[in-house]
Specification:
The structure holds two protein chains of two kinds. By secondary structure, chain A is an alpha/beta fold. Chain A is about 45% helix and about 15% strand. The two termini of chain A are about 25 Å apart. Chain B is an alpha/beta fold. Chain B folds into three domains: about 120 residues, Nitrogenase molybdenum iron protein domain (Rossmann fold), CATH 3.40.50.1980; about 140 residues, Nitrogenase molybdenum iron protein domain (Rossmann fold), CATH 3.40.50; about 110 residues, 3-Layer(aba) Sandwich (Rossmann fold). Chain B is built from 18 helices and 15 strands. In chain B, the strands form three sheets. Chain B has a five-stranded parallel beta sheet with strand order 7-6-8-9-10, with helices on both faces. The interface between A and B is large, with 72 and 75 residues. Strand 3 of chain A pairs antiparallel with strand 1 of chain B.
Chain lengths: ~500, ~425
């Protein structure tokens, strides 16, 4: 439990709003921001390291470098990570371009071997001093023609305007791909930190169609990474990856297909149908020298797979929902936005099927969640929304620690010798932290789940979390959950 | 090339030093930053984050606010939060963007203080210096702004007690320069306190781990300060300027170093007690000494060179102890800010990888954080001494308590 050291020593009002009263897309006042200890989401270092053998060089002030260096150190990847520190005199001397060019060159010269690619991250100070980034990269490419360079950014000051740093980072992952002949038998899933689950709906479709699937999470070396460029379709389903997909389409000539992440069976069906159309259109095109028989067979296989997935998916969802409801009953369930891109969609699915979702933790309502927001306002107006970065959330865990203690004592009296009952089931790390519960689903960024499989798998994970307590304190503080190269 | 690091880490920055120094005091510290500082600080620099509900936030400054110079947004946000949460004080610390746009910390602090009635500090940190600079500045300003003289009645009572006592009344010692960045949360602070009480001193205020703001407010009751890291030097100077209280710099590691430190503390405290009522602080200042640290030059009896990398005061103390106890030559590469007069003439201030590497060539032993190991020559024995200020939480479990158990290092030679 947190030791109370704040000034007034009294309870602090935990900010929250009924969804019926919440405005879209910003339900809370913007102000000072708090950072909870839940750290499972990935940052730009984790994501950049997905490019095999690439070397990351960050150019910024020491204070900004520290977090990224230590991320690399926790991943045991300091040998793929270097820094150039911007100091006060650089701001005054106007030598920022030279610092980047000479600093990066110096580091490359000191590396034990030539990396095939270098990701150069510039920062807010470069943005504000009007640094000529085009000139910098042109010079670096001229000096090191054997190295692929790409521009990456650690400029959080831009997170409220234009593409966010996260969207930019996901787009940069594919900027190093060299154009090559498109292969209609190959597709790529792009923009994810975590690998797409093998039994997810789209993987089933791809398998049925006999398509080779590229995903950066499975690339073992730089050559294999480059093979992604052969893909005829780039599928993204992380909303922050969509912009990168469009850039890729423009640059390499394949087709970008954005698939909405959803927990709504009707929407899942729609998305699968759209995917089928794209795959058939692009990979079954016999008119341009393709094999007509093969194209026809693939089209049939895709249609059949989608039909089977949609029919079976609804049966599976019903079965899993019934099992979950029977086990969890009216235990309060809370969800946070780090779990998946559609937290309100998940809340709606669970509430409409009898589960007791009481709170959703989010700072803004994602655009894709708007239909769910409207429906929830009508049907479940008492659902509470709570922020995660609002200053007063510093005390949420303290407040809930009291509830946790009281519950534990009651449970101990009622069920002496038995496992402590689940007081609240949290879906996502931030929800778990704020609720102070060890009964939680430990997944970030959707966990590579998609479609019907995302629904059934999530329900399975909820049942497991209800029964099996986890060491929340330990687990949520690990950075980059699911980053298998992370050593911590 | 200076400013580049192929593989080593970087020290916690000045803005984090401010947060760390003020963490336990019930205030609200705001890093004027877009994003990133908060997660870095709370993940890597602040082992107390999970267990103490200190109010440390970022302002979340946006591109437009920076371009338009919209300070009012920050002021309103801070006043709004302060009204909700009633901090005992407010601190605003800067990062690169405020430094670039010429943010006026003092003016904004003054506006906030007037609106809220809560003491407010502005710290013009830039994110480009180390934590020592920021923490030292924060502790110095605490002394300057919030700590008063104990008052005539208290002094009279104290002197009366001294006069009537047949034995020497124990001296009260403040400990300056305590943050987890140097001392983690593994009992080192308690070991320093235990050492002081074991040597007959009374522990006064601990700047700033283990004391609340009220206890720090009584810091002027002390007769001497023990400065245990560079982060305490600003407060030491302020205590001297304001109250003429002297300071001794060093950490009690090993027998001889500890004895010398005790002697220095006693000498300084006795002087101060003798002159406590002699005129104004300015007048008394001439009668006491700002800082004394044990640096007796025992003969070096072994040729092996021990190179230590890290924060100045701690490593200087450890270097002294190694020389006293083992006879080895030592050299400190101070990678943080360290005022003149602390290090020896052959020690070096250096943060850059390319400057450090040549210094390691002559080493037989290297004592440093494990994240320095990749640049250390195989010819030297590497003795890991993790520092939260350099490697964050990664080696937290391996940080030794050298005050309690100096043998962990001294027995490695």
């Amino acid at each position: 439990m947190l030791k109370r050291i704040n000034g007034n020593n009294g309870p602090v009002r935990i900010p929250g709003v009924r969804i019926a009263d919440a405005s879209f897309p910003a339900p809370f006042r913007s102000g000072l921001e708090y950072s909870s200890p839940a750290r499972g989401t990935w940052n730009i270092v984790h994501t950049g390291m997905l490019i095999p053998e690439a070397h990351e060089i960050f150019v910024c002030a020491a204070g900004c470098l520290r977090g990224v260096i230590l991320t690399a150190a926790e991943m045991c990847l300091t040998d793929r990570f270097s820094t150039v520190a911007v100091r006060e005199h650089n701001l005054l001397d106007g030598d920022m371009e030279d610092l980047v060019i000479e600093g990066v060159s110096d580091i490359i010269g000191k590396l034990p071997g030539r990396p095939p690619a270098v990701l150069v991250y510039t920062s807010c100070v470069h943005h504000f001093t009007g640094v000529d980034l085009d000139m910098i990269y042109a010079k670096l490419r001229e000096r090191f023609p054997d190295i692929d360079f790409t521009d990456c950014y650690m400029n959080p000051i831009m997170r409220k305007s234009g593409l966010t740093p996260d969207q930019l980072m996901r787009s940069r992952l594919y900027m190093l791909l060299h154009e090559r002949k498109i292969n209609r038998d190959a597709v790529a899933i792009i923009g994810n930190d975590l690998p797409t689950q093998k039994d997810s709906d789209i993987m089933k479709v791809f398998r049925a169609a006999g398509l080779k699937v590229h995903e950066i999470t499975s690339c073992r070396d730089y050559d294999e990474y480059q093979e992604m460029a052969e893909s005829s379709v780039y599928v993204s389903y992380n909303p922050d990856a969509a912009a990168g997909g469009d850039m890729l389409e423009e640059r390499l000539g394949g087709r970008h297909h954005y698939m909405k992440f959803s927990y709504d069976p009707d929407e899942i069906d729609e998305e699968l149908a759209k995917l089928a159309d794209t795959l058939i259109s692009v990979t079954c095109d016999a008119e341009n020298g393709g094999d007509a028989e093969k194209a026809s067979a693939r089209e049939a296989a895709v249609r059949a797979a989608v039909t089977e997935i949609t029919e079976q998916g609804r049966i599976d969802i019903r079965r899993e929902l019934d099992k979950t409801l029977a086990l969890i009953g009216d235990t309060p369930v809370t969800i946070d936005y780090t779990f998946c891109p559609r937290p309100l969609g998940l809340a709606r699915l669970l509430l409409e099927n009898g589960l007791n979702v009481t709170k959703v933790y989010l700072d803004g309502i994602p655009g894709a969640d708007r239909p769910d927001y409207e429906i929830l306002r009508e049907k479940f107006p008492e659902l509470m929304l709570h922020p995660t970065v609002h200053a007063a959330m510093r005390f949420a865990a303290t407040e809930n620690a009291g509830a946790a203690t009281a519950n534990a004592e009651t449970a101990a009296k009622q069920t002496a010798g038995q496992e402590e009952a689940c007081r609240v089931l949290a879906i996502g790390q931030k929800a778990a932290y704020f609720e102070n519960t060890d009964n939680f689903v430990n997944v970030v960024e959707g966990g590579g789940m998609l479609g019907y499989e995302a629904v059934t798998h999530t329900l399975e994970l909820m049942r497991d979390a209800f029964i099996n307590r986890k060491n929340m304190r330990e687990l949520v503080q690990i950075k980059g959950l699911g980053c298998d190269i992370c050593a911590r | 090339m200076k400013q580049t690091a192929r593989i080593i880490s970087t020290y916690s920055a000045d803005v984090m030093g401010v947060c760390s120094a003020l963490f336990e005091l019930g205030g609200m510290t705001v890093m004027h930053d877009a994003s990133g500082c908060n997660s870095t600080y709370t993940t890597h620099d602040e082992p107390r984050w999970y267990d103490m509900d200190s109010m440390v936030y970022i302002s979340g400054i946006s591109e437009m606010e920076a371009i338009m110079g919209d300070d009012e947004k920050l002021i309103e946000d801070i006043c709004y939060a302060a009204e909700e949460m009633h901090p005992k004080f407010i601190a605003i610390a800067g990062t690169p963007i405020p430094a670039m746009i010429g943010f006026d910390f003092d003016a904004v602090a003054e506006v906030i203080e007037k609106r809220t009635g809560i003491p407010t500090f502005g710290f013009p940190t830039t994110g480009m210096n180390t934590y020592v600079h920021g923490a030292s500045m924060a502790l110095e300003r605490l002394v300057t702004k919030l700590i008063d003289d104990p008052g005539d009645a208290w002094i009279e009572e104290k002197l009366d007690e001294v006069e009537k006592s047949d034995e020497e009344v124990p001296y009260k010692v403040n400990i300056l320069g305590l943050t987890p960045l140097d001392y983690s949360v593994n009992g080192q602070v308690q070991s320093i306190e235990k050492w002081l009480t074991g040597r007959g001193f009374i522990v006064g205020s601990r700047f700033a781990m283990g004391s609340d703001l009220e206890e720090l407010g009584r810091a002027s009751e002390a007769e001497v300060n023990l400065v245990v890291s560079g982060t305490g030097l600003g407060a030491a100077k302020a205590m001297y300027r304001k109250f003429a209280i002297p300071s001794v710099i060093g950490l009690p590691i090993g027998p001889k170093q500890s004895d010398l430190l005790e002697d220095a503390l006693l000498k300084a405290a006795r002087e101060y007690r003798r002159f406590r009522t002699a005129g104004t602080a300015n007048e008394r200042a001439g009668l006491t000494r700002l800082k004394i640290h044990p640096n007796d030059l025992d003969p070096v009896v072994k040729d092996d060179m021990v190179v230590l990398i890290g924060e100045g005061v701690m490593n200087f103390s450890l270097a002294n102890s190694i020389r006293f106890e083992t006879g080895h030559k030592t050299k400190v590469l101070c990678a943080t800010e360290c005022p003149e007069g602390i290090l020896r003439e052959w020690d070096k201030m250096t943060t850059d990888e390319d400057d450090i590497i040549p210094e390691l060539a002559e080493a037989s032993y290297i004592i440093a954080d494990p994240l320095y190991k990749p640049i250390c020559p195989d010819s030297a024995k590497f003795i890991p001494l993790p520092s939260e200020a350099f490697s964050g939480r990664i080696y937290r479990d391996d940080i030794p308590d050298l005050v309690k158990d100096p043998g962990l290092i001294l027995n490695q030679f």
